[in-house]
Specification:
heterodimer, A: about 650 residues, mainly alpha, 26 helices, 2 strands, about 70% helix, B: about 100 residues, about 80% helix, elongated
């Protein structure tokens, strides 16, 4: 199947087209069958292709599937080509696998919604775009997928378009992403100008093969510029400082969308892109430092905001932003495989957390405020159990998936000489455990704070929703085992080994041989920190429920700052949105549009009208006057011909 | 009698016709003046034909006369229709085709 890579994105595209064009007349089960069937088929082809890849010898695990020449203009050639190597294989399995589970979940979650066909059509279109992004063999095709997922994200955030806030959130996501895309496209253009090619294999091969022209840059150089521009694109798509503001608002979309697009797949595209461009970034230490700094800043900032949010989905949104920051930290310290590993495990437990949150919202009748939940574990036991697994996983408790990936990142930061980042990461790990268990305790434990009428229809979600939850819970629990760290003395890290061929062209910096004992101790420390975080959450929200309010009152200033998300939205409004809006209104609209453009058009018409008002008197209907004018004309012509020539 | 005598007569007739077209108000008078102009031109044509010893000018005169006859037929029909509708023959009273 490895030669049929094009089938993988094509199948969801067909599903999207069928549902989008004909779905209005289809019964709901048929729509669901088409949508889920196309993704399931895509997953099957992907699995077969990855199996084929695994059959190849480790060093040669790279398969290019060229379909046709897409653009040929002078020396610029872009082909429609798909690349399957270990890196895209990991992404492929995450996208199709998690995507399939979320499609199945949506059957139950969306059953009562209007526009059922529209939802599944968009969701399938998203799968197509994301798979193009992941499988693309050159920057241009990747950009097509990159923009495609942005479009689908916009469409799905604004799914409940009758609500003004949903429409606004969609626009915000779209516009903020465009800002990042400017950087991305400039980066791509700079790559083309430098290498006269956009093909991954060619560009990276040339960088690695010519160390005199492309050395490891000590300061600012060409590769650094490319790296930083590409990373600007990544900050938009992957919601990093300063462009993270769209992701929390994106929670206006349906919950499966939040799980698929805004947690598991699309937002990780930036991390994937940075890892894909490891040969560039590894030779641009300044760009890497920017990546690491932005990553750790985002991780810490978002985690602190997550501590005080009361909307269940917003807590998870900030958690996603924070975890994405972690992944960038890993890439920034040069541990690309650790970043992808965290991406891999995060996709499972964060999708699970969102789907669990969706199940809670579904059960309690649309309520998203944690302060109006409480004590739900007796009513939705499956959701509670699976959410607990996810919370343990994201907190990094042994032996759940998050433990291995998060530990790998923290260890990489420490062992590669970034103790400050390590410390900040450790604090973030504690905060993560704290806000995640705050969510679990507020929703499932303690007093029942929901209104009496909600109690009557409290129910566990249908089978189509619980089965994906359980599947993801299993993956969240054991997913980390694919990358057991070396210090466990069970052989080398298999995940890292698997990814190695994709990262072979990256520049390697030698590290001091690490001692397994130190790494194990470090893992112990991070688990301890996570346990402390959980303990604090327990003290505040279960043991002494009044303590949280007391602390909020005592630290009112800090609480207000966090509650209002550091006033970043307000600052952006004041510094960017309002000046742009004012300039648009007063300069571009009333100045350029009304005065210059309308003025020119209306002025032309006005000149014609006023000159016509004078000239119209010539047409007075009197034949004798016309005859006189003809005579005058003839005389003038004769005079000209006889006298003046 | 030289060609100049003929041309001067032709010019005089043409001028009288032109002035008449502009000055006269009666439709039929205007018509007569137009005929006068046409025939002034005809006179020039035959004069040139005679003095240059070529027949072309005379042929042209036939064409002009045919056109003039057709024009007179159409013009007089319009004049009758005009009089039936408006009870007037003054061109100054028929100025409806204006802005």
């Amino acid at each position: 199947m490895i030669d049929y890579l094009w089938l993988i994105p094509l199948l969801p595209l067909v599903g999207s087209a069928v549902n989008g064009i004909l779905g209005r007349r289809f019964p709901k089960p048929l729509i669901a069958a088409i949508a889920c069937g196309s993704v399931a088929a895509s997953f099957a082809v992907a699995a077969a292709a990855v199996a084929g890849l695994l059959g190849l010898p480790a060093a040669g695990r790279q398969h290019v599937n060229t379909l046709f020449t897409w653009i040929a203009s002078g020396d610029f050639v872009a082909k429609a080509e798909f690349l399957l190597d270990p890196l895209s294989a990991v992404m492929l399995m995450v996208v199709t696998g998690v995507g399939l589970l979320i499609h199945i979940y949506s059957i139950g979650y969306m059953h009562a919604e209007d526009g059922y066909y529209r939802f599944f059509s968009y969701l399938n279109l998203f799968m197509f775009s994301m798979l193009v992004l992941v499988l693309a063999g050159n920057f241009l095709l990747m950009f097509v997928g990159w923009e495609g997922v942005g479009l689908c994200s916009y469409l799905l955030i604004g799914y409940y378009f009758e609500r003004r806030s949903a429409g606004d959130a969609g626009k915000k996501a779209f516009i903020v992403n465009r800002i990042g895309d400017v950087g991305f496209i400039l980066g791509i253009l700079l790559i083309f100008v430098t290498f006269r090619s956009m093909n991954f294999t060619e560009v990276f091969g040339r960088i690695a093969g010519d160390p005199t022209r492309f050395p490891v840059e000590s300061g600012l150089g060409l590769l650094t510029a490319i790296g930083i521009l590409l990373f600007v694109g990544a900050t938009g798509k992957s919601a990093q400082v300063p462009l993270y503001v769209w992701l929390p608002d994106a929670m206006e979309g349906p919950t499966p969308v939040s799980a698929l697009i805004h947690a598991a797949t699309m937002v990780t595209a930036g991390v994937y892109m940075v890892a894909r461009c490891a040969p560039i970034f590894s030779r641009a230490p300044v760009a890497l430092e920017v990546v690491a700094a932005v990553g750790i800043l985002t991780a810490l900032l978002a985690a602190t905001i997550g501590l005080v949010q009361t909307d269940i989905k917003r807590v998870l949104a900030y958690s996603t932003v924070s975890q994405l920051g972690y992944m960038f930290v890993a890439c920034g310290v040069g541990a690309y495989s650790a970043g992808i590993f965290h991406l891999f495990t995060h996709a499972f437990f964060k999708a699970l957390l969102f789907l669990g949150a969706g199940s809670v919202i579904h059960a309690i009748g649309g309520e998203q405020d944690l302060m109006r939940m409480g004590g739900l574990r007796r009513f939705v036991p499956v959701t509670y159990g699976t959410m607990l697994v996810a919370a343990l996983a994201i907190s990094g408790i042994f032996p759940f998936a998050g433990f291995f990936s998060k530990d790998e990142i923290l260890w990489s930061a420490w062992s590669r000489g970034h103790p400050v980042i390590w410390l900040a990461g450790l604090i973030t790990a504690g905060l993560t455990a704290c806000y995640m268990f705050r969510l679990v305790f507020l929703a499932f434990h303690g007093q029942e704070r929901f209104p009496e009428e909600a109690r009557h229809h409290l129910h566990e979600s249908p089978r189509s929703m619980t089965v994906p939850l359980i599947a993801l819970a299993v993956l969240s629990a054991v997913g980390g085992l694919v990358g057991l760290p070396a210090w466990m003395n069970l052989g080398p890290n298999r995940f890292e080994e698997f990814l190695a061929p994709s990262l072979a062209l990256a520049h390697r910096t030698e590290h001091a041989a690490s001692s397994h004992g130190a790494e194990a101790a470090m893992a112990l420390v991070s688990v301890l920190v996570a346990l402390i975080g959980i303990y604090i959450a327990y003290q505040f929200y279960v043991a002494k429920p009044s303590a949280a309010g007391d602390l909020a009152r005592r630290l009112a200033g800090i609480y207000r700052l966090l509650k209002n998300k550091y006033y970043v939205d307000e600052a952006y409004d004041a510094v960017i949105v309002h000046p742009v809006a004012a300039a648009s209104r007063h300069v571009l609209w009333q100045g350029v549009d009304v005065a210059i453009i309308d003025g020119a058009v209306n002025g032309t018409a006005g000149t014609v009208r006023s000159s016509a008002a004078l000239l119209k008197h010539l047409q007075n209907g009197l034949i004798r006057s016309y005859a006189a004018w003809i005579l005058a004309g003839a005389v003038a012509l004769l005079l000209y011909l006889t006298l003046l020539r | 009698m030289s060609i100049y005598h003929c041309l001067i007569l032709s010019a005089l007739l043409f001028t009288i016709g032109t002035v008449g077209v502009i000055v006269k108000r009666n439709v039929i008078a205007v018509f007569l003046c137009i005929e006068l102009m046409l025939n002034a031109v005809n006179l020039s044509f035959v004069a040139f034909a005679r003095f240059l010893g070529q027949v072309d000018g005379q042929i042209f005169v036939f064409f002009v006369m045919v056109v003039a006859a057709a024009e007179a037929a159409v013009g007089l029909a319009i004049t009758i229709a005009l009089f039936r509708n408006r009870k007037t023959l003054s061109v100054d009273d028929v100025d409806g085709m204006k802005w």
